[in-house]
Specification:
- The chain crosses the membrane at residues 12-33.
- Keywords: Membrane, Transmembrane, Transmembrane helix.
- The chain has 71 residues and is mostly helical.
- It has 2 domains: 1-38; 39-71.
- The chain has 2 helices and no strands.
- It is rod-shaped and about 90 Å long.
Amino acid sequence: MNGMGYGMMGSFWGFLLNLLLILLIAGAVVVLLNRSGYAAPRDNERIIKMERDIEEIKKTVEEIKSKLEEI
């Protein structure tokens, strides 16, 4: 027995249980991050696309505004 009161087999199974627990937690974190849509590069592309759409909308509004002023 070592100082903790576990035999050779007890420490092995304890180590294996701890390892499985850590892998389970890490897997759960990865699944939750994927489900939440966390992806920095994809978000950057989405933001760039939104900025382009906003610019196009601004141009369209300006064109409509100028046509309304002509009328």
